[in-house]
Amino acid sequence: MSPKKILCLFDVDGTLTKPRLAIAPELDEFIQTKIKPLCTLGIVGGSDFKKIAEQMNGEDVIFRFDYVFSENGLVFYKFGKEAGRQSIQNFMGEEKLQTFINYVLGYLSKIVLPVKRGTFVEFRQGMINISPIGRSCSQEERDSFEKFDKEFQVRKTMIEALRKQFPENGLSYSIGGQISFDVFPHGWDKTYCLKHLEKEGYDEIHFFGDKTEVGGNDHEIFNDPRTIGHKVTSPEDTKKQLEKLFDL
Questions:
Q1: Any known ligand binding at 11?
Q2: Per residue in 25-82, pLDDT tens?
Q3: Is 224 marked as a binding-site residue?
Q4: Fewer Cβ in 10 A, N or C end of the chain?
Q5: Which residues carry out catalysis (predicted)?
Q6: What pLDDT does 133 receive?
Q7: Across residues 19-30, what is the average pLDDT?
Q8: Pairing of β 6-10 and β 204-209
């Protein structure tokens, strides 16, 4: 009887790394030396490839991990080569896109936060990332906004307003990380990457993620019947769960 063909698929922020920081060398080495010989490795993140590469200690991540799905798999690399690309611009069209972005900027101009910085709307290949505080804030300001948001639900309230304003746009909203949320067409959450894996013949796809609650950007893929979901609380917890899974 041949061994099972297993893929371990990881979220980045909060799972392999602390939010927006680089993966710890110890965890990186553990995955490459202890886990890679036992299964195929994949990463799926909402960020673009450049940000994922920064957090994973270099663009050679496409060789260290067998699959790298940036922007939830809208852009993806397989065994070191780009293998697919899709765009929200093509999906929505420029007119709808600008109407949406203009509303977002108007909304953000009216809310008052402890601080505001820059880059409130980041246009990506497969999504729009919206940050009420602005993505150019410092790590200290990130941490502070995360606490503020837990108390005052800034992101959640804004999402409710967008759903009400654009009920027919076919858009989904997902809160991930500390300071922002993602906007993308229905079905373009992290389950999008599974389309690329359906014909690859894996017996088991184990997904590891931290934002698995309703509204979190790992929720859909964590609960998808095609995956075995593992909820983690930190990179250290990811390591513990891998050790348990593979009896190390």
A1: yes
A2: 999 999 999 999 999 999 999 888 999 999 999 999 999 999 999 989 999 999 999 9
A3: yes
A4: N
A5: 11, 13
A6: 97
A7: 94
A8: parallel
Q: What CA–CA distance (Å, rounded) separates 85 from 72?
A: 11
Catalytic, 247? Answer no
b/e map 114-143, b = 16+ CB within 10 Å:
eebbeebbbebbbbbbbbbbbbebeeebbe
For residue 221, pLDDT beyond 80: yes
Does residue 11 have an active-site annotation? Answer: yes
The per-residue DSSP string of 112-133 comes to --S---S--EEE-SS-EEE-SS
Top-confidence residue, 126 or 211: 211
Q: Backbone phi, then psi, for 184, in 5-degree steps?
A: -155, 160
**Where do the domains of the chain lie, and which CATH numbers do they carry?**
6-86+189-245 (3.40.50.1000), 88-185 (3.30.1240.20)
- How many residues does the structure list for the chain? 248
Structure tokens of 95? 């007119």
d(CA 65, CA 97): 34
Compute the distance between CA of residue 41 and CA of residue 12 in angstroms, rounded to an integer.
13
Taking 3-state DSSP, the helix, strand and coil percentages for the chain, each rounded to the nearest 5, stand at 40, 20, 40
Q: How far out from the chain centre does Cα 225 lie?
A: 19
- Taking the CB of residue 58, how many other CB atoms lie within 10 A of it? 11
Beta bridge partners, 42, equal 9, 67
Has 135 been labeled as part of a binding site?
Answer: yes
